[in-house]
Design a protein that fits this description.
The structure is a single chain. The protein has helices spanning about 15-30, 60-65, 105-120, 195-205, 210-215, 220-235, 245-260, 265, and strands at about 1-10, 35-40, 45-50, 70, 80, 85-90, 125, 150-155, 155-165, 170-175, 240. It is α/β, with parallel strands linked by helices. The strands form two sheets. Strands 7-8-9-10-6-2-1-11 form an eight-stranded mixed beta sheet, with helices on both faces. Helix 3 crosses helix 6 (about 220-235). The protein is globular.
Length: about 270
């Protein structure tokens, strides 16, 4: 059994959410904080870009018209519109047993917990076993194609995850869309014409889904969070103690908001 910290956060802006994940990464990596499972949400809705995704994928005027934020993640992958979802982050030192081995090995362990959580919510999910072909990953939208060990439902991607391995520690975070219209993301992205925008929306609905689409009812954020906590405990042998950010983590997160995640030098750097 391994003792971890559990943080359940209120909805917050995208820059704060990414800054907190990185602040925990630095402190957990140094051993100043315990390994942490953090569950959170986003307010307002926020378009997040992968670490190396071109900022030219963003349609700034449409984003502003909807009142949505934009932030660049410290992890890879493509764009996600964070709204009506539960987001999880797992943050540990490099030698934490759950995260040992290759990226795919640690992905597989965490995917087992995500599977168990979804099954407890009456979602008959399965795990994608193969990486997509390279040409399938060239679009701007993350949820178009499941990657290896991501969670699929009714043949469509349900949970998308990404991992960053740094000298100071390991961060994996991912999104479980609970309800709402997944095609809203095309209103935040730039396309060569409106036909392409419409075709992307149609393709997205064929390849991605939400919990509501299968169950025909909305799962509350709190219910989904409880399912994840229970699954991580039972599947990975963790013992959680409810906690909050330390003073040092909070101060570092505030610094990262100002100097990185709310700054064009980071968000528009690619």
């Amino acid at each position: 059994m391994s003792d971890w910290r559990l943080i359940l956060d209120a909805p917050a802006p995208g820059a704060w959410n990414m800054a907190v994940d990185e602040a925990i990464l630095e402190h957990a990596g140094r051993g100043d904080s315990r390994p942490t499972l953090r569950l959170y949400a986003w307010q307002p809705a926020c378009l997040s870009l992968g670490y190396a995704q071109p900022y030219t994928d963003v349609d700034e005027s449409r984003l502003a018209a909807h009142g949505w934020d934009v932030v660049r993640r410290p992890t890879g992958g493509r764009a996600i519109l964070h709204t009506d979802e539960l987001t999880y982050s797992v943050t540990t030192a490099p030698n934490e047993p759950i995260m040992e081995g290759t990226v795919l090995e640690s992905y597989n362990r965490i995917a087992g917990a995500l599977l168990a959580a979804c099954h407890s919510l009456d979602l008959p999910v399965s795990m994608e076993q193969h990486a997509p072909p390279a040409e399938a990953t060239k679009g701007a939208v993350c949820f178009e194609v499941p990657s290896a060990y991501e969670i699929v439902l009714d043949g469509k991607k349900l949970i998308g995850s990404a991992q960053a391995r740094k000298r100071e520690g390991i961060l994996q975070h991912g999104s479980l869309p609970l309800h709402g219209d997944l095609t809203r993301i095309v209103q935040a992205l730039a396309f060569e014409d409106e036909v392409t925008r419409g075709n992307t929306a149609v393709r997205l609905l064929k390849r991605a889904t939400t919990a509501e689409n299968h169950l025909q009812r909305v799962i509350a954020w709190e219910t989904a969070a409880q399912a994840l906590v229970g699954a991580f405990q039972q599947t990975l042998g963790l013992i959680f103690e409810r906690g909050e950010l330390s003073g040092a983590e909070k101060a570092r997160a505030e610094e990262l908001v100002q100097k990185k995640y709310n700054h064009p030098a980071w968000n528009k750097r690619v």
